[in-house]
Design a protein that fits this description.
mainly alpha, globular
Length: 469
């Protein structure tokens, strides 16, 4: 009874994930609002079915309790940031917040956030991400749905890759129905910033590589007829098509010319591959061959043909002088920590509070620090960073444990995807703000959920030695 009731909710969830990157990565107020309404509507429909038909939340949702507790604590904490509190309470918790409200003439009850309006907006955005995480756990309750989720993410990345590469190579450069005005000559897809397309492709590629690994380890061929049959199956089957999808996404990633985007992808793939081989008790030879081919073909053939040397040149030219503005912004942002160490200045308040700390030699306007860690720490303080850090770390270890414990190829592959995706975006976050782009943050929440799904989902093929993808 549960499957028919949730099938159309699952379709709506997949449609949401496919839509998010299209309108500039949903990094516009109207697109963010649509994401929030869409996610809330899906959850309300699920709850309506739950109370009306007594649907079970499922074993994955129940066993992902550590992550869910952290997320609900995060929502409660960020809610407190913009709720009015007595002045004496705020001054004892965050003296600088009290001083800022005093300068604005606020008296009586004030908030920990220096910009409660934007903190409310940020909280609604966070709520949408939490709901997306919960919907992943609730709706992805079979191996078939897990594959559908993976393919939707891959197809979304493939569209962005094909569109971005076509626009760049053809010189006919448009974003989301609008002619591009920046990053000309660089692939951006329907995003505005090439680094955000790179971040999105990192996550889509991690899912694609995990699914590719899940398809390996088929029947061993002992005769030439069997080998010929397996070769024909490779040429005509899903494995080759999936490999081509990955190659196209790598081409687009190279064409973004994003230094950290490319560095994070290849570094995370190698790191996750080594971790996966170490955790596997009997890794098939095909897994080693796949990982080696990804590095050799994608870097030395695809990358060289489509301009990897430009990425290398940008990496070699990276210096504190060359990127002085970004470095100064990050350093100035860290200064905010000193005044708002415990609770931060409030979610979404960066561009409100940053001018006070902005150095005189920072010439450009910044609505985000090019460092997710610095910006999140300035807005949410030590408490917020500990909650978010615990969520990511617990999910990372869940993905490692899944790779070690599970024998189902699909679950192992998706656990690999989560491991690689977490490493990639955590590396990229040191120099960019992908976690402040709704499409990227939402897919990252799905990547985190994959670690718990791959660890706890009981597949109907659990007892089989392989699964066809």
């Amino acid at each position: 009874m549960e499957k028919p009731a949730t099938e159309y909710i699952f379709i709506g969830f997949l449609a949401l994930l496919a839509w998010l990157p299209l309108p500039f990565g949903s990094n516009r107020p109207w697109a963010m609002a649509l994401m929030e309404i869409w996610a809330c509507a899906l959850m309300m429909i699920w709850l309506w079915h739950y109370f009306r038909e007594a649907l079970s939340p499922g074993v994955v949702f129940l066993k992902a309790r550590p992550a869910l507790v952290l997320l609900f604590l995060w929502l409660a904490y960020s809610l407190i940031q913009f709720l009015p509190l007595p002045y004496s309470w705020v001054s004892s918790i965050s003296l600088m917040s009290a001083k800022m409200h005093a300068l604005a003439g606020d008296a009586g009850w004030i908030t920990l956030s220096v910009d409660p309006h934007d903190s409310l907006s940020s909280w609604l955005e966070s709520l949408a991400y939490v709901l997306i995480f919960c919907l992943s756990l609730l709706l992805v309750n079979t191996g078939e749905r897990l594959k559908k989720l993976a393919y939707v993410i891959i197809y979304s990345g493939l569209f962005q890759a094909f569109y971005g590469a076509f626009m760049t190579l053809s010189g006919f450069e448009f974003g989301f129905f609008l002619k591009k005005f920046s990053y000309m000559g660089n692939a951006t897809g329907t995003f505005v910033n090439r680094n955000h397309l790179a971040g999105y492709l990192e996550l889509c590629l991690s899912v694609g590589i995990g699914l590719m690994m899940a398809s390996l380890g088929g029947k061993t061929a002992f005769t030439w007829r069997q080998k010929l049959r397996n070769f024909a199956s490779l040429l005509l089957g899903k494995k080759l098509r999936l490999r081509l999808y990955l190659a196209i996404m790598v081409i687009a990633l190279v064409l973004t010319h994003s230094r950290m985007g490319n560095s994070a992808f290849f570094s995370s793939m190698i790191a996750a591959g080594i971790i996966g081989l170490m955790l596997s008790r009997h890794a098939p030879r095909s897994t080693v061959i796949l990982l080696a081919s990804l590095v050799v073909i994608d870097i030395f053939i695809v990358g060289t043909w489509f301009g990897m040397e430009k990425v290398v040149d940008r990496i070699e030219n990276t210096s504190a002088v060359h990127d002085a503005d970004r470095v100064n912004v990050s350093e100035n942002t860290v200064e905010i920590w000193k005044d708002y160490l415990l609770t931060g200045s409030g979610g979404g308040s960066f561009y409100t509070i940053f001018p006070k700390y902005r150095a005189a030699d920072v010439e450009n306007y910044y609505d985000h620090a090019h460092d997710d860690y610095a910006e999140l720490g300035s807005e949410y303080g030590v408490i917020g960073m500990l909650l978010l850090g615990a969520l990511v770390v617990s999910s990372f270890f869940a993905s490692l444990f899944a790779q070690y414990r599970r024998r189902n190829p699909l679950m192992r592959g998706m656990a690999f995807s989560s491991t690689m995706g977490i490493i990639a975006l955590m590396m990229h976050s040191f120099v960019d703000f992908n976690l402040h782009i709704p499409a990227n943050a939402a897919i990252f929440m799905v990547i985190l959920s994959l670690s718990w799904i791959s660890l706890h989902l009981k597949s109907e093929l659990e007892s089989e030695r392989s699964e066809t993808v």
